[in-house]
């Protein structure tokens, strides 16, 4: 069950800047409450439901970082003093052998060397390891060169993870390295948030499913497939409701049915007030709808509301606007519903190679790519066509060039922020 107030999306007034709008939105939404336990092999991309605390040190004991010989460092000093030369090599008897997964089996004694291998536990008291390449041994004794520092080639117990520390915080979307860390602590399964259930649909008598014949006046539905792919990459459980005809009763009933088994409903287009735009009254018949007029280009009209207990997000109809508003508006809302930590991508400051005029007071997103200049600086090149319906601009670009509200013009050489698409996904 999604936790949200009846008026969580209510807002009236002039166009609102993106950051305050998102802060207000996410502050009013709580995550889904259901959790489940999954095996490590099924945990990739899932949201951790509880802090993972280390039950022991990693590594659990001091161990050798190389193949070689473990010694007491003070034996090297003593041998040098006895020989009358602090820089003289040291000869010690080799009295034991320890491989990974084994123990010496007795207390180590001063004045001896132990043959040791990478990952093997250090004999108690021994604190330094010589690399085998630096030593000469006849099997019974080993000659150790002078000049080594105390503690070299020894990994300390707990230097990776300390017992009792939080190694993975609740809300983290699990990456391969996170799963590896959990495995190193002996966890075969993890408690995670249940996948967010999201239904996606399109409306419009002009839309056709790819693969169908395309009559005059019809277009293929691309937005729905973009949303399904974006939601899947986010880790949601997606239901494709297909294309709904421009019929009020059909849309109303489909929304009501979908809200019974989903946490969120997402659509694109159909949010105007024309005679064939039925999404708005269909949502209002099942709950409430509040239009947020965001100061953003592309994608100013973003509709947010509720259909029964499900969050409703209505995105613009143009393909570029759909992707931009999903990444910058819908994605943070969905992550909040998922119980995930804030994953706002950090922009990369780069040098602009283009001139561009924009309207002050509005956040604007251009499509572009990065190149490396002769002086080594990263430069952003703007895609030559700006239209919100130019889907190829997304395909042929590497990310978004984000221009803040107070900026009125970009000139070549100025610093601008670049958001790579891969950072969102």
TrEMBL record:
Its EC number is 2.10.1.1. It is an enzyme of class 2 (transferase). SMART domains: MoCF_biosynth. CDD domains: MoeA. It catalyses: adenylyl-molybdopterin + molybdate = Mo-molybdopterin + AMP + H(+). Keywords: Magnesium, Metal-binding, Molybdenum, Molybdenum cofactor biosynthesis, Transferase. Its cofactor is Mg(2+). Pathway: Cofactor biosynthesis; molybdopterin biosynthesis. Residues 199-336 form the MoaB/Mog domain. InterPro entries: MoaB/Mog-like_dom_sf (IPR036425), MoaB/Mog_dom (IPR001453), MoCF_biosynth_CS (IPR008284), MoeA-like (IPR038987), MoeA_C_domain_IV (IPR005111), MoeA_C_domain_IV_sf (IPR036688), MoeA_linker/N (IPR005110), MoeA_linker/N_sf (IPR036135). Catalyzes the insertion of molybdate into adenylated molybdopterin with the concomitant release of AMP. PANTHER family: GEPHYRIN (PTHR10192:SF5), MOLYBDOPTERIN BIOSYNTHESIS PROTEIN (PTHR10192). Belongs to the MoeA family. This is Molybdopterin molybdenumtransferase. It comes from Azospirillum endophyticum.
């Amino acid at each position: 069950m999604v936790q949200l107030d009846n008026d969580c999306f209510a807002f009236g007034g002039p166009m609102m800047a993106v950051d305050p709008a998102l802060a207000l939105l996410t502050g009013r939404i709580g995550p889904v409450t259901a959790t489940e336990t999954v095996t490590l092999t099924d945990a990739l991309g899932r949201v951790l439901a509880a802090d993972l605390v280390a039950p022991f040190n990693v590594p659990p004991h001091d161990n050798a970082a190389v193949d070689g010989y473990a010694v007491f460092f003070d034996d090297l000093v003593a041998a040098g003093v006895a020989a009358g030369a602090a820089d003289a090599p040291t000869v010690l008897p080799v009295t034991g052998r320890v491989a990974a997964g084994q123990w010496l089996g007795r207390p180590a004694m001063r004045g001896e060397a132990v043959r040791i291998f990478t990952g093997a536990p250090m004999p108690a008291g021994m604190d330094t390891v010589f690399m085998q390449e630096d030593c000469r041994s006849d099997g019974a004794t080993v000659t150790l060169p002078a000049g080594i520092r105390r503690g070299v080639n020894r990994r300390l117990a707990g230097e990776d993870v300390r017992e009792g520390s939080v190694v993975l915080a609740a809300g983290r979307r699990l990456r391969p390295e996170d799963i590896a860390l959990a495995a190193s602590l002996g966890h075969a399964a993890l408690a995670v948030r249940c996948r967010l259930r999201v239904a996606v649909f399109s409306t419009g008598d002009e839309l056709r499913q790819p693969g169908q014949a395309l009559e005059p006046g019809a277009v293929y539905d691309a937005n729905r497939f973009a949303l399904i792919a974006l939601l899947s990459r986010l880790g949601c459980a997606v239901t494709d409701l297909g294309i709904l005809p421009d019929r009020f009763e059909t849309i109303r009933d489909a929304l009501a049915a979908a809200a019974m088994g989903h946490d969120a409903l997402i659509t694109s287009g159909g949010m105007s007030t024309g005679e064939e735009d039925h999404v708005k009254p269909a949502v209002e018949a099942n709950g409430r709808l509040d239009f947020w007029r965001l100061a953003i280009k592309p994608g100013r009209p973003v509709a947010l509301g509720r259909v029964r207990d499900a969050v409703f997000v209505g995105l613009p109809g143009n393909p570029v606007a759909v992707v931009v508003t999903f990444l910058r508006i819908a994605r943070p809302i969905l992550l909040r519903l998922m119980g995930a930590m804030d994953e706002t991508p950090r922009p990369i400051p780069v040098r602009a190679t283009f001139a561009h005029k924009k309207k002050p007071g509005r956040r604007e997103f251009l499509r572009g790519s990065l190149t490396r200049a002769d002086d080594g600086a990263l430069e952003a090149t703007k895609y030559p066509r700006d239209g919100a319906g130019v889907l190829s601009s997304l395909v042929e670009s590497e990310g978004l060039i984000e221009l803040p509200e107070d900026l009125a013009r970009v000139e070549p050489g100025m610093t601008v922020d670049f958001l790579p698409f891969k950072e969102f996904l």
